[in-house]
Amino acid sequence: MARLLQPVCWRLFPWRGYCSQRTQGELSKGFVEALKAVVGSSRVSTTAIVRDQHGHDESVHRCKPPDAVVWPQNAEQVSRLAALCYGHGLPIIPFGTGTGLEGGVCAVQGGVCINLTMMDRILELNPEDFSVVVEPGVTHRALNTHLRASGLWFPVDPGADASLCGMAATRASGTNAVRYGTMRDNVLNLEVVLPDGRLLHTAGQGRHFRKSAAGYNLTGLFVGSEGTLGLITAATLRLHPTPEATVVATCAFPTVQAAVDSTVHILQAAVPVARIEFLDDVMMDACNKYSKLNYSVAPTLFFEFHGTKEALAEQVQRAEEITQNNGAFHFSWAKEAEERRQLWAARHNAWYSALALRPGSKGYSTDVCVPISRLPEILVQAKEDLKASGITGAIVGHVGDGNFHCILLVDPEDPEELHRVKVFAEQLGRRALALHGTCTGEHGIGLGKRHLLQEEVGAVGVQTMRQLKAVLDPKGLMNPGKVL
């Protein structure tokens, strides 16, 4: 089977190395029984269909499935599972909701997939301190449902209903980052099971302070580590007061340049906007069809404003003036909750809307971020490059913080089309680096951007990361093949 897998992976992803030669089904009966002794027989699976389900995320990246999948119910079981795998030299792949876009859960060397979704308790809520402690199976929607009566909410929203600890592992961002920051800014403490089974509290057990100058920032080390340093079994998160009032507005523009210029001008004018989302004409057409809307098929900005009713009126008026100065048309407000919900649901479904433009295709999502001042330049160039490439694709992004995505639709059976996608994605990543940006604003490095990581942080940067991993994971068992 291993001999068959390598050419398949090479054919699908000719730009990306190779799949491991380690064959499947190597787990001994005794080892599988040892796994069952930790979590129970019903929470261990070696069946092909379950392993396949856990061998990929929402990306086009496909490789080998894990050899077994286990479902622990608490941190103690995770610790025992890690120690067991560590002692047998078996790779460990953490798994949350599987909504990642860079192949972060692919088992390139086989091993044991630890599915953390059964650990779904909200452990502690401290409303006076604006913090909450959650297990890895809690999603951001579930948390906000739980918080509804408290007057608090967790604003980091990547679109998909991702698990919060998975969001911490990938340093997720989303539509609200322009005002509330990313996961990097909203994680106060982490409980982490290290590869050998030891339990670490990155800021000290039970602590949930806003700032500290005590030692190295271990919390920051694990936020964005993509499962390569340990398994996050609990996260202490920063909460925010629920806005008194919310208004959503949309406006269309004659050109991409005009839309992005408006974004820059609004930010320069210090308008306290909570969200600024950009959708190009292709994406708007896709959203209209998929979500049954009737918006102009033109480059469009979605805004959301939070605050008092009096402040909102002033914010919207200022934003409208700026957009009109840049040639905007069809500026409209969405004040009612249901109308706002429908609008943001369409934005959050952009991935599936784009896929529906070409049924049967796979989606490949780029993810770059640049300084705000360089955003018009790179977005206009990306649109031109996309047209010149002949690739079917749409552009959507959290332009309020300089981050955007090109959702490219590709036939995985067409090597020539795959090559064009590879060339476009790498060119876009390098354009972002040349403009002092990053090759990934929120998706992470995963499998597909390891070569760009070295170009971004340099040889010494990657070497330092390797040294850190070697100390924490000397056997290289934690999610191998990712990031480095």
From TrEMBL:
Keywords: FAD, Flavoprotein, Mitochondrion, Oxidoreductase, Transit peptide
Gene3D superfamilies xrefs: 3.30.465.10, 3.30.70.2740, Vanillyl-alcohol Oxidase, Chain A, domain 4
Pfam family, one: FAD-oxidase_C
InterPro entries to which the protein is assigned, alphabetical: FAD-bd_oxidored_4_C, FAD-bd_PCMH, FAD-bd_PCMH-like_sf, FAD-bd_PCMH_sub2, FAD-linked_Oxase-like_C, Oxid_FAD_bind_N, Vanillyl_alc_oxidase_C-sub2
GO cellular component assignments: mitochondrion
Limits of the FAD-binding PCMH-type domain: 62-242
Task performed by this protein: Involved in D-lactate, but not L-lactate catabolic process.
Organism, scientific name: Erinaceus europaeus (Western European hedgehog)
Family of this protein: Belongs to the FAD-binding oxidoreductase/transferase type 4 family.
PROSITE patterns: FAD_PCMH (PS51387)
Cellular compartments annotated: Mitochondrion
Top-rank lineage group of the source organism: Eukaryota
EC number, UniProt record: 1.1.2.4
Protein name as it appears in the record: Probable D-lactate dehydrogenase, mitochondrial
The protein's required cofactors: FAD
